[in-house]
Design a protein that fits this description.
Chain lengths: ~675, ~675
Amino acid sequence: MTRTPVPAPSVDALRHVVDGRWANVRDETREEMGRHGLSADPDFTSEQYRAWVLEALKVLVASGRPHTGFDPSVGGKGDVGGVVTSFAMLAYGDLSLLVKAGVQWGLFGGAVQVLGTARHHDRYLRSIIDGELLGCFAMTETGHGSDVQHLHTTATYDRATEEFVIDTPHPGARKDYIGNAARDGRMAVVFAQLVIGDQKPGVHAFLVPLRDENGTVLPGVEVTDDGRKAGLNGVDNGRLAFSGVRIPRENLLNHFADVAADGTYSSSIENETARFFTMLGTLVRGRISVAGGAGAAAQKALTLAIRYGEQRRQFTNPSTGEETAVLDYLVHQRKLLPALATSYALQFTQDDLVARMHEIQAPGKPKAGAREQRQLEQSAAGIKAIATWHATATIQTCREACGGAGYLEENLLPALKADTDVFTTFEGDNTVLLQLLAKELLSDYGRTIKKGNPLGIAPLLGRQLASVGAERTGLASLLRRIPGVALDLGDRKRRTALLRTRREDTLATAIRHLAPAMRKGNDEFAVFNASQDLLLTAARAHVDALVEESFRNAIVRTTESSERGTSMGTDASVKGLLERVYDLHVLSVIDRERAWYLETGRLTAAESQTIRPLVNELCVELRPHARLLTDAFGIPEGWLSAPMLDGPAPLPVEAGVADVVAAG
Amino acid sequence: MTRTPVPAPSVDALRHVVDGRWANVRDETREEMGRHGLSADPDFTSEQYRAWVLEALKVLVASGRPHTGFDPSVGGKGDVGGVVTSFAMLAYGDLSLLVKAGVQWGLFGGAVQVLGTARHHDRYLRSIIDGELLGCFAMTETGHGSDVQHLHTTATYDRATEEFVIDTPHPGARKDYIGNAARDGRMAVVFAQLVIGDQKPGVHAFLVPLRDENGTVLPGVEVTDDGRKAGLNGVDNGRLAFSGVRIPRENLLNHFADVAADGTYSSSIENETARFFTMLGTLVRGRISVAGGAGAAAQKALTLAIRYGEQRRQFTNPSTGEETAVLDYLVHQRKLLPALATSYALQFTQDDLVARMHEIQAPGKPKAGAREQRQLEQSAAGIKAIATWHATATIQTCREACGGAGYLEENLLPALKADTDVFTTFEGDNTVLLQLLAKELLSDYGRTIKKGNPLGIAPLLGRQLASVGAERTGLASLLRRIPGVALDLGDRKRRTALLRTRREDTLATAIRHLAPAMRKGNDEFAVFNASQDLLLTAARAHVDALVEESFRNAIVRTTESSERGTSMGTDASVKGLLERVYDLHVLSVIDRERAWYLETGRLTAAESQTIRPLVNELCVELRPHARLLTDAFGIPEGWLSAPMLDGPAPLPVEAGVADVVAAG
């Protein structure tokens, strides 16, 4: 089968669509970044690198960008979505700088803003925004990373002096991996178990000074350096231990709960666990920012590897007598192009996620309902996990696709790999996040049942019964009679249906396996534990469907703006190209999961075997557009300067190769 | 289903089996290493690290170990297998030291030994062995990495002076990524196109001096530093360019070909390509050593992650009220234990591979036939690819399984990751190696056809026809009637048959897709290119079957030595445990490839769905033995010293959990 070749849109038209809602912020950020071209020396010692990052932070302050995310009351613009978008673009440059900025303004500044009240905002936010007061976000402890509700640091109220006393009861309770702690931080938002006499109302956040204006560590505070890390060595991560450190009562960040002078505790949220998760929920911005940074890093790696793949030639084609560009090899295309398609999908997903956050968190917006907030947190958890794993795998692949050149720091891939590696386990370990998401999905399911909503459940249960039958009898073909699924695999609607079906069925399977946990006498933990892999599968399938939906909607928006004839700079060829990219992304997902589709009878063996040639065909079709697709990310050229790309100009892409492969 | 718990053997008995043929060398190496405990500072600049490695190299010289691999004629022991085994164990310690040693004695010294003759051996080998003459192996060029037959450096014979003139015609022909080049190397084995007047008999190897005794670079030689790399920064990689560098005629390494004083060229191998690949083939030791180093690195990562997983507790089990060790979570087990099982499989595979090399290369052995040599090269290529990808993926998983702690250099995982990352693309890019293997398998198939050997082909073609039919009609269940396949999946024989079937069928599928290339008028390159993914699949399936065979044979040997009542220190519980590890490895492979088994009708949907619970069950069964299984690698404790392991003692493993999961 030979399809009509896809015409190439202009890079500007494509970039406009890729840039999405915060296109203006992206352009401004590109311009700001292009002007400074901040690049660190890869042979820096940790100390040299930290000093460099601290200087670079001042450049960011001067740009005025960090202000824009804060409330207008403290001189900001309240552009929550814009600042997260701009922040993620720092991943095109130096990732230590990104993380240092994230710690300072996102985590530390963000916690003061959302967990604190006017007394904290007035006193600290301006100097935080201006980078005069550098601070830490001290939540994780050596012994408690994922399970932060049970951390061990204590804040004991002393009514006599109206102070809290902060203590680290044992070495496992040291705050660990804390950015800004080892060298620069003068204050920390410390999460600790609040103790008021016999009352222990759970984890709260406190402002604790760490160093004086000269940088000398204050009495009772013990700082140790986490030392050299796999990457991000421009960030001064360290451990903090407290011994009888006294802070005024006013240093409790009291947006959700307060302690009166006499020790009376009050909170707008009665349940301790609910309160804790509400506090955590307001910090969702960090997780979303990490997903964005991971996305940008993967885009940069793909841009480098695709440029190299167009230029690098290896082995002579006996038909032409010329050496072949490595990106003309099918296996090379299969390494890079499906990953590129998924990067597109995640770009649109991230834009949607940021927009949802903006609608909830930006000042002046109506207060979000618990449901919207919860769904935002769920999506953020799932997308963070999938986006960071995508980055880790993609950057690894790009490194390998550039061979020895990809191993040299001068060619930028090593730092991308090393610096982003921790993204999969910080701001929530990915595996834990997906489990949280799965449990939330189970709860939502439970709530739907309670409401007796037949619309929400009937299809799920119906398919579930069919699926159980298929599992038992192997009569898989029966299932294909389900309406909306029994179409040709080349059909976009069928593929969308396949992703949706998987989301529903994997959840149903997890529910069925968990059912025994509800029965008396069964060990609930053991049943949950034995079903953990099914929970992860359900969560993954849920995110896959979310991502597909964002990509699909982005294409619909493109069509609409084309049809309206608006001046958004889009055109039909943008849509045509994006549709092929969308196809490749969705088929890659189905390809990855095709064992599941076969096992559950959603695909026949014959259908499954058509996936490989379809993916190959799409790779060949998109090969001529690979460079354009990466150019549309709009990464400043100064941050793509790699000696491995200083070779001869790329060969012109030959027509004809596509036809041969498509015919095979 | 609840199976009898597996009894634990002693660590010594298990280690004896794991140590294999060169157990004595392993013990000696452990003792040598334990004495020195060489560990670099992770915050070294490249220059500091290089100086440290150079000093550490002297410790290796003093140990006498490098001597043992060379011929007795130059003071060695000819223990080719032993030295490769010992060398790979350096990966337990510092990988820069491993690579520096590999460059000096394996690549540089090895090339002088196997490509040179007495005049080179007598003059250079002793000082190479003693580390007095440090050297390079200068094959790869900036423009030619994988396709080294077409590199561009020239060695032009000047009859007047009886010299070769070495030249780098353009920047793309610079030797690149060359270890020992940037700082320490005084001589290089340079691969160059030989030119004698109009005659160009292909690539040959020449000894070219680079620096004088004071380390000053010689005239005509240009050295540039490759700079900081992702890892291995203790190795001084660099680029070499030559401009009219004259070397005496005797510096041609003339084992396979020579140039007489009058310029007459002679060689024992007439065909140029055959000669080049024969020369390359003698260097197979490097590839085998990389596979061994990768295996050891993965073992170390697993040892660290499993110790941490036993000790690290997170989240409270509501049934017990205690926090759960993370290795008691099923998802954590599924991350680490199948990888551990595969590490066992690869350990036995590597031991077999080294033994085969030893039988061919060690002095005093009968000269190997072309077939044995070719098969050794095939296996080495395939196993190198699979072992290094396993290491990359496993170390990544182990890093993530240790969370933030795994990101700190002090906990050793970051260096393991960064240093071994290049293993997948050096000593042959993995993707290229698997393609070479696949093409060799196709050639072998062609040779079998030519010989008219019905035994070799009939089964393959028979299954092939059946398979084609299944692909076309979807009547997959027919296939299960093939003898030896239609057994219960829990049956070991069935599983072995599944791996073997896949090896044969994937090759047959590749052959069928390549057939059009033989027809006139078709573009051979395009057809091959469009089938590249099928070739990779066939190569991968071939290696999977090789690995399974090595593991199975190792268990058989264990049984035999038990039955003979020899004093090999084995016992029945070793065998019992290894069988479960074998089961987990083989099931993991089938699990990974189950889409293929479903598509080709080798597994029904119902059968495929039993894989997940089987893998889960084996994980739970092996969980109590995880620590023992890693202890049996015998990694010197000094090289496992990580602060993250200085926590509380691990919880005792509870019986009972296994039963619950097995019952689910």
